[in-house]
Design brief:
164 residues; alpha+beta; OB fold (Dihydrolipoamide Acetyltransferase, E2P); 5-stranded mixed beta barrel; 3 helices; globular
């Protein structure tokens, strides 16, 4: 009798523990069209202030000095107040295509082509292409509009994984 009661208590505790663990907040992965506006292309120029190399997406935080949004040029008065988050592909995809975290140190000047978030009050975009100061262009791994058919940019070299 005592043995079945202790099994019941252990079982109830296990169910409670699983329920508590499953309650932890989870970040949902999203489709391009769920968050970004394919009808709102934009180009930003600025300086990298932070880089997040995390799953499910990499993020470049860019202090924007010049922007063309929906055909209109915008020059922020204070770039330190105009920091945009630009979503890229997963770190694994970027590394396989030849881009490592070390390729984009804080302070790097970039031009980013992409699409604005559907909520236009957010300073958030999905990055399609990044252009480095030397003119190299890199496809950011976006699944959105304008993604290359095979996921490669024109400059990608076979076997170039891990190179900047």
């Amino acid at each position: 009798m005592m043995r079945s009661r202790s099994r019941w208590i252990c079982g109830a505790m296990a169910v409670g523990a699983l329920a508590a663990l499953s309650y932890a907040p989870a970040e949902a992965h999203h489709a391009f069209g769920a968050e970004f506006d394919a009808d709102a292309p934009m180009q930003m120029e600025g300086t990298v202030v932070r880089l997040e190399w995390v799953n499910p997406h990499s993020w470049i935080h860019l202090a924007v000095t010049r922007m063309v949004r929906m055909g209109e040029e915008v020059v922020p008065a204070d770039p330190s107040q105009e920091v945009w988050m630009v979503e890229g592909g997963t770190p694994n995809v970027l590394v396989r295509r030849g881009l490592r975290r070390e390729c984009i140190p804080v302070g790097t000047q970039l031009i980013v082509d992409g699409y604005q978030a559907k909520d236009h009050t957010l300073k958030r975009a999905n990055g399609r292409d990044v252009t480095f100061p030397d003119g190299r262009k890199f496809f950011m791994g976006s699944s959105g509009t304008g993604a290359p058919e095979d996921g490669r940019d024109q400059g990608a070299q076979p076997g170039s994984a891990g190179r900047c």
